[in-house]
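Why does residue order matter? Because the sequence determines the fold. Keep that principle in mind as you read this record.
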Amino acid sequence: MKLEQRHKAVEMRLKGYSLNEISRDLKVAKSSVSYWVRDIVLSEKAKQILIGKIQKGRYISAENKKAKTRQLEERYFNEAKDEILKNPNHEKIICAALYWCEGNKGLRGGLTFTNSDPVLVAKFLELLRKSFDLNESKFHPCIHLHSYHSAEKQLDFWSKITKIRKEQFIKPYRKLNSGKRIHPGYQGCISLKYHSNDLARRVMAVAKAYLSL
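Structure:
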């Protein structure tokens, strides 16, 4: 039986069947199929058939992932809308509204809130911490500074404002500046990044739900 399956596996492989297809059709382990066909040199036609299947598989996988993401975002939106209508959390709504105005809408890079106003940054973080379950270690802010700024001084300043450990900040970004225009009291700009696409979707869902009413 094993010998017959091996011959059949070789025949199927030469015709451009994938390892998964052979394993499924012959009802044998994929590892066995891989061992049986490991030395086979495929023809150009067989290669093109396999490449087409791989590309199709990737496309299907990507579309399935998009569909799952849309379903998740729709669920978060409906949950947020239901909460706002039945038991509104005003601090969460304000937090989401601030993010809608100043946050990154892309979501793939997680939650990113950028601003130069220390008061606004502190208030956003206060509301975010009150409204959502956070893992503080996922914060990795970046401060944007001009050439006249002291990186060490500004790092101390923004660390106190955000209550995020200095060790979590990434390397500051230096903006080009001629040095002719120095703004007294300007502390630079901070980009608050929280590495979680899920949190970004939840915050955006609250904002969209509130704006939809």
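The chain has a mean pLDDT of 91.
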